[in-house]
Design a protein that fits this description.
Elements: E1 3-8, H1 24-38, E2 42-47, H2 52-56, H3 59-67, E3 74-77, E4 80-84, H4 90-97, E5 110-111, E6 117-118
Parallel strand pairs: 1-2
Antiparallel strand pairs: 1-3, 3-4, 5-6
Length: about 120
């Protein structure tokens, strides 16, 4: 089983839906991580503000942070850094994790015109 680890900068939540300003990139990335898990990948996500010990325990992540805090998020697959400074798209995750991906698969979460995050079945999108 592949293992994906995400080392996020300090933030209030990983979904991007906390507060009044929804970050659509974070909301989509959270949905993509759930999709990746559904395809048999073990996913662990660490927030610098809440789990600094996970960062300190990974020498590669420490080196990235020493180069600058803007290197976060750091995305690691099976112990190897595959991305820094940005959240990969679903297509990029598919490639980095070697997941079989069909073009008819749609994201499970969409961002509504009002900026909120919703389930396509709810009718709000």
């Amino acid at each position: 089983m592949k293992k994906l680890e995400v080392f996020d900068p300090a933030m209030c939540c990983s979904t991007g839906v906390c507060g009044v300003d929804v970050d659509p990139v974070l909301a989509q990335f959270a949905a993509d991580l759930k999709w990746v898990e559904a395809h048999g990948v073990s996913v662990s996500r660490y927030n610098l503000g809440q789990e600094p010990q996970a960062f300190a325990a990974n020498p590669s992540v420490v080196r990235e942070m020493e180069a600058g805090i803007d290197r976060l998020p750091v995305v690691v697959v099976d112990g190897h850094i595959v991305s820094t400074g940005m959240y990969p798209t679903r297509d990029q995750l598919v490639q980095k994790l070697s997941i079989a991906h069909t073009t008819e698969e749609k994201p499970r979460v969409r961002i509504s015109a009002a900026g909120g995050c919703c389930d396509p079945k709810s009718g709000c999108c």
